[in-house]
Amino acid sequence: MAPPSSTVVSICLVLNICCSIVIVLLNKWIYTHYGFPNITLTCIHFIVTTFGLFLCKLGNLFKPKSLPFLQMLPLALSFCGFVVFTNLSLETNTVGTYQLIKTMTTPCIIVIQTYAYSRSFSWKVKSTLIPITVGVFLNSYYDVKFNIIGINFAAAGVLVTSLYQVWVGEKQHEFQVNSMQLLYYQAPLSAVLLMFVIPFFEPVLQFHGVLHNWPIEALLMVFLSGVVAFSVNLSIFWIIGNTSPVTYNMVGHLKFCLTLLGGYLLFDDHLQLLQVMGILTTLGGVLAYTHFKLQELKAKSLPITEKQ
Known about the structure:
Layout: H1 6-34, H2 38-58, H3 69-92, H4 95-102, H5 105-116, H6 123-127, H7 129-140, H8 148-175, H9 179-201, H10 204-211, H11 216-242, H12 245-267, H13 273-301, H14 304-307
Helix pairs in contact: 1-11, 1-12, 2-9, 2-11, 3-8, 3-9, 4-7, 4-12, 5-8, 5-12, 7-13, 8-11, 9-11, 11-12, 12-13
């Protein structure tokens, strides 16, 4: 199968950026104004994703493929941890802190791929982590409010997210499946796993007590959150499967800047001068990373005679 064109990749990246920003701000709004249970919301996301993929299958957008249960279980567990811990971080931290800790996913992925999968990265690509890290730090400095529980959730989210994103790429190549085939098997499995967890962390009686107090607009926003989550999950699988987890995370820093702006507009998270400088520094690092990656891809595609 031929690799996707640069136009298709660009469209999917833009779609993922837009949906990722919306899901962060929408979930933060749901947590802040309605107090919807976190793990229950995550389970609903998985259920909506399963239903969405079922519709995609009926539309002949993909053909399901049987996958080994035991080998898929770690991926499903990491998927649950990835979404639950990042949502818990978003719920217990400010938007700025949430985004700041998430940036540690990129170096964590590089370490995992370097030592566990013998992957190598050029010093130019590694050097782009410096302006991005500095820019993100400047961007979030005035938003950081130390919350022990929230920081622990965020740190756990970084580790699980890194493992999850690496495994997604590896499993797609190992089983020779596309993003929809993998997610079609994984989403319902993850939803079932969370159903066993919810009674322990979000008791049924407490859940019903909150349910009776929710207005109709809250339930509509929860459903909309599930639809957007489906778009995010699908685009994540496609991007990681067709590019790399590192590329996905570097583009994620652009989402950081835009999400911070959304936090400023919706949650009154005021921007300081150093934060604006951080946004520009982060964008510079993202552009530098893109430039170096394109150079490397171009060099690999040149004939041997041209390289000499």
